[in-house]
Amino acid sequence: MVNSDFENPRLNLNTTEKKNLRETKELIENSPIDINNNMQIYNSFIEKSEFSPFIYYLISKDKSVIKFYEALKQIKVLITGRDLINMGFIPSPYFSKLFEKILKEKLNGKLKTKNEEIKFISKFLNNKK
Description:
The protein is mainly alpha-helical. It is 60% helix and 0% strand. The protein starts with 14 loop residues before the first helix and ends with a helix. The relative contact order is 0.11.
């Protein structure tokens, strides 16, 4: 287990090392990560430094780290706010919720192309009316 005593000055850790250990500790505290929940896996690792998930894996042997690096890390939303504006939408904080819905669909393999994302948004918003 990662001890929170890594802030101890006698360890002489640099800022990056402390950050990696803090992130690893956070991953351990928030585990287990559901291997079948792609969104949870993605959100658990996407904003972490490169090393934190690897340290976490060495400690936990959690296969979700492997799934993240092999299948999920490279997934990105292709549609932009500009695309939504061009579709006639007024910029708002709701855009981020739309991007999150698209990301979830992409992580589950339901959307692959930008055109599919646009169709999904159009269909989703038409169903909301």
